[in-house]
Amino acid sequence: MIILKLKRPALMCFHPGQYAFLKIKEIESQWHPFSIASGPQSEFLEFYIEVFDQGSWTRKLWGMLDGDGDRENSNKTVWVEVMGPYGTPLANVQDFSHVVSIGSGTGVVPMLSMLKQHVRHILRLEPSEYFRDLRQLQRDVYRLEVARQPRKGSLAQKLSSCWRKDSKEKASVTETLRHQVKRRLRSSITALKTQPVGTYDHTVTSREIKDATKKVTRLYYGVVALVVMPILGILLVGMHLSWCTLPFDKAEWMENALAICTCIFYGLFGVVATCFWDGNDLPAYMDFCFSVVGAFSCWYWFEKNLFGSFSTFDMMTYLMLTGYMTMRCWYEVVKPRHHSFRTEMLRSGINTVDKMEFVWVTRSAKLVSEIMPDINRIYDTLVEKWGEAHAARVLDIKVFVTDKDADAVRRLRESMENTNLYKNGHYTFGRPDLLKVIEDHTLDCSTKLRNSYTLLAFCGSPQLSHEIHRMKISNDISAAITGNKNHQMEYVSESYGGYKSQSGKKTEPQNVGDATNEEASVMTETTASPWRRTKRYDSTVSADDWQDEADEETKSMLEEGDIDPRLFEI
């Protein structure tokens, strides 16, 4: 593992999840992409570079910086050209109240950037003031949601409520009953998770869950069925332009088909816009006006038998009506179903997520020993400034090591047994239950908060990404059928690393481009445990400083017997 640390150019701005291209002309003139591990506000660029097989670019970099055992060559200056950033950021995390970041293997690098960004924001705040402002923000978000709750509903529902004198009383009773059902369902789900398997009576809330499931599935079926509307609108516009403008003899069935399809489309639009879409904004009233005008126009054209032989005015009217309805249907189909009230109440003193859950899954205990010292340092800094209790409220780190090498796991335990993360049980040596991690997060939010907006971010293999996506959908359905729609979750993922050739060995992607120059000089080769080999290169430390530090560290390790003295024989 090579940890490369460069001075960040002043004009280079990036976000977690982006990568940069590196080129070292002394090795070759090709560019190689690596995810950026440093935080966006850091003065440096950090890259965690995994060393591959012989002949690879990373192996050549290791050999060049190592000097092939030649201490004089290992102190030379290395010129690194950097080009970037590239790629799509994982997300604007400030728009979310919570973040669950999952990294698989070396896919932990983008999550490290997000972790450093979160901790950097947290360390700027004072704990007591932060939690006080956070409680006020949650109250403001709840007030905004409650204020908008009575305004929700279609235009037809609002018109019908004007004729019902007892609408407020019934709405109040319905709202009370709805919250009672939500509390019962939430309690039953909690009991189902905590009780031993085989001891829970699944028939207690089966009817309520089935009824809630039907409502949720009807909503999703309605969204899918709505896709037909813009498709039908586009077909109508195409048929109208071709049949009414091109000079050819039209068959009678063509005019009848155009008339029938137009009446059906206008009728469906009027029903959907009036009875199903939200009636609280200006487009709702425009939809109603267009529906009325469309119904009158369709009746007029049908009565005068004008379909297929429109005048210029009729043709423009038809295109305007059909085009507006098609665009409105398309907007309702593609618009996001989740809405964060937090984004409207933010920028009022809190500009960070409430809590981040950092999850790392890896099958290499050696990789953990190389990267975890940096994570331990970040966590220890937070604990030192905030205290362990407060730190646990804003950051939760889970590391799952699935290495089958018992000796490697044993050495990892020995090297990490004195760290706070290991003492507090943040390490798990076994396969993770990622579905339980996601469900526990949603359950924790639903029991402690009125609403939440969570970012579920993943970086790793495409296969595991698909699995986590299915887990997220399953969790969304569970939250929906239990009435916890105020606890929303968005999923974003990216893949990483090289590809495997037919021989089964990993190779590296290659790219070509321009760059800016940056200088890096050797800092140290760390050996915190006898089986680790990690090279760190820092552009801010001179070779003389490195030499003094390395000599002291080597001397102490020789005295303690951690390394073999024969390694230093010439």
UniProtKB/TrEMBL annotation:
The keyword Membrane applies. One of its GO terms (molecular function) is oxidoreductase activity. The chain crosses the membrane at residues 219-237, 257-277, 284-302. Gene3D superfamilies: Nucleotide-binding domain of ferredoxin-NADP reductase (FNR) module, Translation factors. InterPro entries: FAD-bd_8 (IPR013112), FAD-bd_FR_type (IPR017927), Fe_red_NAD-bd_6 (IPR013121), FNR_nucleotide-bd (IPR039261), RBOH/FRE (IPR050369), Riboflavin_synthase-like_b-brl (IPR017938). Residues 553-570 have a biased composition (Basic and acidic residues). Residues 497-570 are annotated as: Disordered. Residues 1-92 form the FAD-binding FR-type domain. CDD domains: NOX_Duox_like_FAD_NADP. Residues 500-514 have a biased composition (Polar residues). Pfam families: FAD_binding_8, NAD_binding_6. It comes from the Eukaryota. Keywords: Membrane, Oxidoreductase, Transmembrane, Transmembrane helix. GO terms for cellular component: plasma membrane. PANTHER family: FERRIC REDUCTION OXIDASE 6-RELATED, NADPH OXIDASE. This is FAD-binding FR-type domain-containing protein. It comes from Grammatophora oceanica.
